[in-house]
Amino acid sequence: MLHNLLVPLADQFQFFNLFRYITFRAGGAMLTALLICWISGPAIIRWLKSKQAEGQPILSYLEDTHGKKKGTPTMGGLMMLLAITSSTLLWVDLTNAYAWLALAVTVGFGAIGAVDDYRKLTNRKNTAGLSGRVRLFLEFSLSFAVIWLVMHLQPTALSGQLAFPFFKDLLLNLGLFYVVFGALVIVGSANAVNITDGLDGLATAPAMIAACCFLLFAYLVGNVKFADYLQLHYVPGVGELAVFCGALVGACLGFLWYNAPPAQVFMGDTGSLALGGALGSVAVMTKHEIVLAIVGGLFVAETLSVMIQVASFKLTGKRVFKMAPLHHHFEKLGWPESHIVIRFWIVTIVLALIGLSTLKLR
User: Fold this and answer.
1) pLDDT classification of 168: cutoffs 50, 70, 90
2) Is 338 helix (H, G, I), strand (E, B) or coil?
3) How far is the CA of 341 from the CAs of 100, 164, 269, in angstroms?
4) DSSP state of 15
5) How far apart are CA 91 and CA 104, in angstroms?
6) What distance in Å separates the CA atoms of residue 77 and residue 198, rounded to the nearest whole number?
7) Cα–Cα 20 to 30 A to 353, which of 14, 47, 83, 218?
8) Which region among 9-13, 152-156, 228-232 has the lowest average model confidence (pLDDT)?
9) Within the chain, how many helices (H) and strands (E) appear?
């Protein structure tokens, strides 16, 4: 909004030229989202506590390790949604369609997560929330619509194409199947972050690190000179997503203030689905879908651990891990929660550096 209001006045007031620059507005969005979380956090947490007598439901098989968390409110993702939406709309170019689509995915997946959280909180006899089929139907429906629109926004030479990291010219034409593939990226990313969100701060910091990486990817892919120099596939207009990613980073950092161990609030499905969906949508729009699997390798590992555990038990009757997802396996091994969280953060930083190396290794 500030871009649309102030840039036309730049001829009269030179300071307003700053609002032309994506880097300046991305920093502004980051700081704004951070401040919104910091300022609104205590009030939102108090409100959530007043509405949730018992807080986040603790599953029976986690009582021994997570019983002390009983009473902690969930749905803290509302704080992040407020920060992301407000700061993005304030700093982004409102004529940019990519930004609107990224926001639509974030808010849409956050709404699905909020309904899921609400059902868990209001039905103590069945804490499963929305059925898997209903949730996936809603997630895929939104994702199909967004991917179809993205394909019409992107240049003809890139629409429906899958780009590969480390190769400057390699593209795989998926045609209309790209709608399915892109939707799988968004839905898979959303649910992978959701699965990872099982310990205080475990999903928040890795999501923030991934958003930092995609802030850079969006800026470079959307800049014709940098894209040409780095031999990236240039996507006109996608640079505005750097502002959106800045809002994601700020919101995660602000939320981590209240979510760090011991957490005052959990993000719930409201936050995890929104963050994962946001990262997946940005990956699709910047043509860095495969790089998301590298940068978000922790989310991939957590998801695979569940799939391997289920498949192994059904086929052999034996479990590969003491408990899935992966972070619960390490809990059962006796690792303190803080060790698991910090070590997983370190792994994410290493994976992010590997993902960033794809910018030059082509």
Assistant:
1) confident
2) helix
3) 33, 31, 19
4) G
5) 16
6) 14
7) 83
8) 9-13
9) 15, 2
Pairing of strands 171-173, 161-163: antiparallel
Determine phi and psi for 35, rounding to 5 degrees.
-65, -40
User: Does pLDDT of 65 surpass 80?
Assistant: no
Tell me the C-alpha distance between 79 and 77, whole Å.
5
Please name which of 219, 245, 246, 247 lies closest in space to residue 234, comparing C-alpha atoms: 219
Predicted confidence at residue 131, as pLDDT, reads 86
CB 302 within 8 A of CB 327: yes
- Give the closest residue to 154 by CA, choosing from 130, 182, 180: 182
Model confidence at 61: pLDDT above 60: no
| Long-range contact pairs involving 230-237 (C-beta distance under 8 Å, separation at least 24) | 230/359, 230/360, 230/362, 231/168, 231/362, 232/359, 233/158, 233/163, 233/171, 233/287, 235/154, 235/155, 235/158, 235/285, 235/286, 235/287, 236/155, 237/96, 237/97, 237/98, 237/153
Cα–Cα–Cα angle for 282, 22, 234, rounded to 5 degrees: 55
The residues, ordered by sequence, that sit 6+ positions from 153 with a Cβ below 8 Å of its Cβ are: 97, 98, 101, 237
Beta bridge partners of 34: none
Across-strand partners of 163? 171
Helix residue spans in 154-236 (DSSP H): 177-196, 204-221, 224-230
Sorted by sequence, the CB contacts under 8 Å of residue 250 that are 6+ apart come out as: 29, 30, 31, 32, 33, 34, 35, 37, 83, 87
Mark 1-32 as b/e (b = at least 16 C-beta within 10 Å).
ebbeebeeeeeeeeebeebeebeebbbbbbbb
